[in-house]
Amino acid sequence: MSAVKTIASSAAALLLLVGPAAAVTVKNTSGKEISIGIDYGSQAKVAKVPAGKSLSFDCNEGCGVTGPWSFSWMAKGNDTFTTNGKDLIDVG
Predict the structure, then answer these.
(1) Which residue in 43, 50, 42, 39 sits closest to 76, CA to CA?
(2) What ranges do the domains of the chain cover?
(3) Alpha-carbon distance 76 to 78, whole Å?
(4) With respect to CATH, is domain 20-91 assigned 2.60.40.2890?
(5) Residue 77 φ/ψ region, left for φ over 0, alpha for ψ in the -120 to 50 degree band, beta for the rest
(6) Residues near 21 by Cβ (< 8 Å), separated by ≥ 6?
(7) 2-57: pLDDT as tens digits
């Protein structure tokens, strides 16, 4: 087997072991940009979600999400939040 085929086979096997990353998505249905906080426990960051757009971020181990909806939500896996910038409309 050629070196290229060996490397390609090894890379494919590694990807199968790692598995897909879990991403949380926040959908902004408002006409204004909103800011959300993402808390991973050991680190936190603030992200902007443009008006009418979505933002996805890694959340494999679980994370806290705060925003203009006046409370925090513990997210994990492939949760999706939909917000109008004032209320948390839907978590699924």
Answers:
(1) 39
(2) 20-91
(3) 6
(4) yes
(5) left
(6) 58, 60
(7) 654 444 454 444 444 444 567 899 999 999 999 999 999 999 999 999 999 999 99
